[in-house]
Amino acid sequence: MKGFLKKTALIVFGALLLATLISYGSLYFLRKSSFYKPSFLVNAVKDSKFDYIILGASTGLTTLDTKTIDKLTNLKGINLSMDDTALASHYLMLQHFLAQGRTTKSVVLAPGISAFNATNEGISDNDYRFMMFVNEPWVYNYYKEQKGYEANVMQYSKYIPFAGVSYFNAELFYPSLLSAIQPNKRNRFDDSGNYTYPVIQNRKSKVSKIKPYIVEFKSQYFEKIKTLCGKMGVDLICYISPTEDMNVETSTSDYFFIINHSQLIRDPNLFYDKSHVNSIGREVTSEAFAQELIKIINK
Description:
Elements: H1 2-31, H2 37-43, E1 49-56, H3 58-63, H4 66-73, E2 77-79, H5 87-99, E3 103-110, H6 137-145, H7 149-156, H8 161-167, H9 169-181, E4 211-215, H10 220-232, E5 235-240, E6 246-250, E7 257-260, E8 271-273, E9 276-277, H11 279-297
Parallel strand pairs: 1-2, 1-3, 3-5, 4-6, 5-7
Antiparallel strand pairs: 8-9
Helix pairs in contact: 1-8, 1-9, 4-11, 5-10, 6-7, 8-9
């Protein structure tokens, strides 16, 4: 009986050890790669000084093309937006950017429109993309202050990496195998952090009525971003992206700039869906944004 228990204990210990080693390896290869935006920023972005950076969700990722903007303005920008994220994630990305010793003159905040008014903010679907940096205090503290099971899994991954890698296996383990072979592979964004949605031929809008929407900037994480920008001495620019079904209104502010493009595009053929433009629409928005940005930069 003792021999059986001893063998069982050895097998369990060996399995745990192997799982831990594999998990450490997965996070290591992702940390050294360019697959997700946090590691892309660390490993692939060579410039340390920028005129502007874009923080946002899928709207910021697909609406503003830094290559077009830079060509029109002679500025230098980078798109650090990630899909399926909220203002809390954008605050974390700003901290991550600064922790690498990078600087910027302006921060362009381009989340989903409703995020500006969010009052019940928590972990976002893609916050696991920072998990390979969980040993860094700004990442660990972010996970620690969030609530919910997934936040706990990410937090405990600092000490038990198997917890996070096994839970997010499709998002972490399999990409880590690819990253081990192709460390420069990127997850749906170009070498400046941009991505675009395709054109849908003869698209018909399903929007029957345009609704009014007032942005009141209630989010606590918006306040944190605004405060951090103030400490840095940089301009905060809030970008309201084009939308098919909303007419967005905002109040003016002495503490940040607002570029409201909610009604910039009315042609349904320039939209991928009601909240995102396609590649043609992106050119329209990027050109219009460039004109507004250069005014702010040169104010």
